[in-house]
Write a structure and sequence with these properties.
CATH architecture: 3-Layer(aba) Sandwich
Distance between the termini: 29 Å
Number of domains: 1
Shape: globular
Strand order of the largest sheet: 5-4-1-8-9-10-11-12-13
Helix content: 25-40%
Number of helices: 9
Number of strands: 13
Oligomer: single chain
Length: 292
Amino acid sequence: MKVLNFGSLNLDYVYQVESILIPGETQASKSRQTFCGGKGLNQSIALAKAGIPVYHAGLIGEGGEQLLEVCRENGVNTEFIKQIPGLCGHTVIQVDRNGQNCILLFGGSNRSMSKEFVDSVLDSFEEGDIILLQNEINELDYIIDRAYEKKMMIILNPSPFDSALESCDLSKISLFLMNEIEGFQITGEKEPDKILAKVKKLYPNAKVVLTLGGDGSVYQDETGIYRQGIFKVKAVDTTAAGDTFTGYFISSIIDGMPVQDGLKLAAKASAIAVSRAGATASIPVRSEVVEK
């Protein structure tokens, strides 16, 4: 079994602020740092740090060499990362005194996927392999269709949620990993139990992990529902918390761990991540998580 993450690679420009800006407000930032990130990259590094060999497929633009470097430094296979002309995908992130953030995303090279590039990548994968997807790249619907034809296990983090997902056949998804907001956007329901019930009705063959912020997480499959609380820490930066959870939970599936143990592992890893600054830099290695 091979694991492919077909996803975004971003340069993150992180500004420390007293409070998240409101419309019309001007505020001096306390500092600016540049990190390597993107939901795709974060989740690939989380998988690699959790001990899972992972291939990352994606496009980088000008100045993206450091994205390649951070992948290689963290053990992510870069065979399917291609550099193209134009700007890299990037974000402008505000982080307030409580560690909360808001993110402005510019797609850049991440929105330049072609069907030919998708086909060239998927030619190297086969039935039973895992593909992890997020919604920060274009051609997502085509990738899902092609991966389904190849009988791969398709895992989707439907973030950020937008109209592009309407063209995707979500009945082909094996596992959803989403938060309450994305759960509401997919189902129209706000209560966690109602979200899970609606997902089961809409996509009866799919498993789902629903993250609930301070209320932990819940997993649903054909055998039932499993719940996990959080590990309380002082939040410094929540940027990569969800991506860390995603990578570690998927690693638990690959390692054959019981669901409850996988949820606990992912919760511990994400707690460590929020206690540190940055995106990829905040993701812990497996030995740190196991020792906690």
